[in-house]
Amino acid sequence: MLPALRMRGRTKAVQMQYDECYTLYFRRARMLGFVLQFKRQPPTLVHSALTALIDWWRPKTHSFHLTCGEMTVTLEDFGMITALPIEDHALTGRVERANWQERVIALIGDCPPMKGNRTSGVRLKWLLENRSVCPQDADQRTVEQYARAYLWYLLTEVIFLDCSGDCALWMYLDFLEDWDAGYRWGSAVLAYLYRSVR
Prior knowledge:
- The protein is mainly alpha-helical and 198 residues long.
- The protein has helices at residues 23-28, 32-38, 47-56, 75-82, 100-108, 124-131, 140-158, 170-173, 185-196, and strands spanning 57-58, 63-66, 69-71, 121-123, 167-169.
- Helix 6 packs antiparallel against helix 7.
- It is globular.
- The two termini are 16 Å apart.
């Protein structure tokens, strides 16, 4: 139940077009199970039940204090629920702000011009309009860029939400550069969710 506290199940999440040619990359990143949960239709969430669960959450013990007793969600539980990897390399490091637009172009093939002082990422609307459907005759590099954009959108729209709710944060895109890096996405997401409900 804990993932639903922050994971958004909105119809918007299915607007990015899943292409079967992405499967190879998502399998290499060990995130295929997670992606397939949102490929066709996002889960239906009962918001009143989620609100009730949040009321029972105790941040000091990282558990729910229910009338039937105390309950906590372990990392293994979370890994089974989300199908996100929980072993190998930690999702840590220093996020470099310099040249982020060039990195976005290198990783997904394009980047909108920066407007105002927005330096945290790319608007989800732009991502949907410009990276939603992979061209039929795309070469391997282009397919990989569209696969990365799809996963970046999904991670941002479902788990790693910014406060505005309309931006794909580029700091998570950097971790999608190497499909074989073997990151513990499940651990990072669970920590992010725990922090969000505090």
